[in-house]
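haha ok so turns out i had the wrong file open the whole time. this is the CORRECT one, sorry everyone. sequence first:
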Amino acid sequence: MAMAAIKTVKSKEQRQREDEKRLAKAKRGALPGPELDGVLAASLKTPKTEKDVANSPQEKHWRAAEEVEFFGNMITKGVLERVQGGLPDGKKAFPGKFVYKIKENADGTIWKFKARFVGLGYRQRPGVDYDVWRTYAPVTTMSCLKKVIARAAHTDMHLFQFDIEGAFLLPKIDKEIYVSYKGVTYKLHRTLYGLKQSAHAWNKELDAHLKSLGFKQSKGDPCLYTRKTEAGFIAVVTWVDDVIGAASSEQLYRDFRNSVASKFPLSAEGKFEYALKVRVRRKDGMIYMDQRTYIEGLATRFNAEETNPKYTPMDEGMAKMLSKEQMPDVGTDEHKQMQRTPYRELLGCLSYAQCIRPDISFAVNKLARFAQNPGKMHWKALKRILVYLYTTREKCLVFGRDKSNTTLSVMVDADHGGDKSTARSTTGIVVKAFGDAVYTKSKRQGKVNNSTGAAEFDAIASAVRKIDNFRIVMQDLGFHQQTVVVETDSKVAHGMLKSGRLTTATKHLALDFYAVSEQMDDERVDLRHVPGDDNTADIFTKALCRVTFEKHREGLGILSP
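then structure:
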């Protein structure tokens, strides 16, 4: 009996060693070989289906990535358990599949091939496979991350970032769920990417752990956590499985990192230098954020590298011409051609780029209005934005230029009736924290306004509604401010609000008027007039000439490194 037990133990140990060798071999195979040294990830085609993988020149790398994911993460870690025999009565198994992605280095070259096994959550049945009230998970904004970075630049804090490995595979699942793959049925023991309840379960687990470490969740942004002790101040922003933050000392960060590592496995950790397709650098006490690698990848992908340089994202004349009248009729040659054009794909990529390059926001948002049925003129204008980004790809969003500035301030502008198709106006908003642009907005207003003053009132009211949220986040970051300065170049709106009176001709503005006046009476808002040439928000309301555009771009803190 004893010898049999020894043989059993040896057998298990042997299987464990074989599993480790199998997984190590797969991990090596998921890395790019010598033939891919220096190759940009954007130049390779990412497969979408099993057939694409079979036809891919990099098939061996994708197969190795599948092995790492399914065997290493699903089976070995006990996320999936193979079902012997049939399913229990009343139970159904919904299919699983792989989703593929090439992970990049900071310079855009290939880091590794990634295959993620996901469940087709749209097959789940409400009340049976998930609870409908347990599917929500908050998502942070780039604006919140910028506020933390601005705070770090202002007070010389240590920036850090780390990933939690397989975050959605960590929480235990509270439903009996089965997944099928290649004819085999598996029972789920933990949540899985693609399930409706996975994000909620992971956020709940991470939130509980951070609060157990003494962190306070912000009421202004549920993904911002702060903690102030005698050891120092630390702020953390959670972005699904990414944890990005700033600490008053490196030792404070390391203590926090070790506390998280004791609960969750970390796949990467260190300084915040490259994450979310954004490169972060420190120089001369300032922090520089850029997306040069991302932009160069887009230029390669959409064939914009050899195009003549452009120094503004949209031509003034073209901006006035663009309208729905240029949308092609269904069935025409132009319509058929544009259906094959990756308009929405490029639009989505540029929408993400405007997080770090807000100088393209007006152009991107204007062209988004034609995404349903774009014409050739719309496509030409969209490509110009990419060419402009490529031309100015070295530009960075800079934080920490004014160390003495600890205030929160807002600039507002509106272009009256600028949209040719609807005659609606466009609102432009810039919010600065510590003197740095942390939030920008370019949006067509929801109704037609009959005058410039009415359009400006609409824009001011829209900005004022957001101030309380920004004030809360700033207070969580350690800087309380009772009164926020709001600047506008509209003498009409400024004069009416300062006088506190409506007339018969302006009574239709009552709702916006009293919403702003109430904040001014409580000394939460101080409305000031600024000359139009100095109003940075102008860049979000219309296409500008190069000289004016570059002046306002600099006002946003978009500079050369």
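The chain is about 35% helix and 20% strand.
again sry for the mixup
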